[in-house]
Specification:
alpha+beta; 4 strands; two-stranded antiparallel sheet; single chain; 3 helices; Alpha-Beta Plaits
């Protein structure tokens, strides 16, 4: 149900600026994604591509396999976070 940022992150701030859910946070040395907030942009936009991964210049944002990521689950998370 979330994406994650891997070590290739260059902390360029691009993902932070486009995340509609506020899930991307600055951390040292790389940024992190709060899985409880990340909906992979489901609910925020029609396009299926998450905004953060679309703008990452080094492709450092990947699917976090630890979490379920079907569309219904992501939409429920969106609704829970945006009452």
């Amino acid at each position: 149900m979330a994406l994650k940022i891997i070590d290739e992150c260059i902390a360029c701030d691009a993902c932070f600026e486009v995340c509609p859910s506020g899930a991307v946070k600055c951390a040292d040395p790389i940024y992190i994604i709060n899985e409880s907030l990340c909906t992979e942009c489901v609910g925020y936009k029609e396009d299926e591509n998450p905004s953060c991964s679309a703008v990452c210049p080094v492709e450092a944002i990947v699917i976090d396999e630890r979490y379920e990521r079907d569309r219904d689950t992501l939409l429920k998370k969106f609704k829970r976070n945006n009452p």
